Amino acid sequence: MNRTNARWFLLFALILATAACSDTPTPVTPTTPTTLEEPPWTGTLTPFGLQSFPFVSTAAGQISATVFSLSPNDDSSARIGLAIGKWDGQACEWAVTNDAAAQLTVLYATATSGGSICVSVNDAHGKLTAPLDFDIRITHP
User: pTM for this structure?
Assistant: First the structure.
């Protein structure tokens, strides 16, 4: 094979290899899950009391409920029950609980799909001796 033929052969092979790779793949833009923050949920919990806050989560993902503040709580000893669960239209069916949540406690749960979710505060064990004001912060997908 002479040099001219070898060059043509090499050029032809290069063109074929380039043609096979000429399709530019379409870039895929990753989606970032959106985290929503509910307005602060505030209220007053009475001894042996229970309150629930229902909301709708639009997708699967992590839910958090933070005890932002408890008052009066001068010595930081106040504890409440905190729960995350599924809202059935009338009550909160607890899935994750903390029976002794202090100020700044964060409770996490994972929703497997969007739907009706709820957060509850309670004094199920009667540890409160007087009403206690609370501020709960909730994030969800």
Answer: 0.76
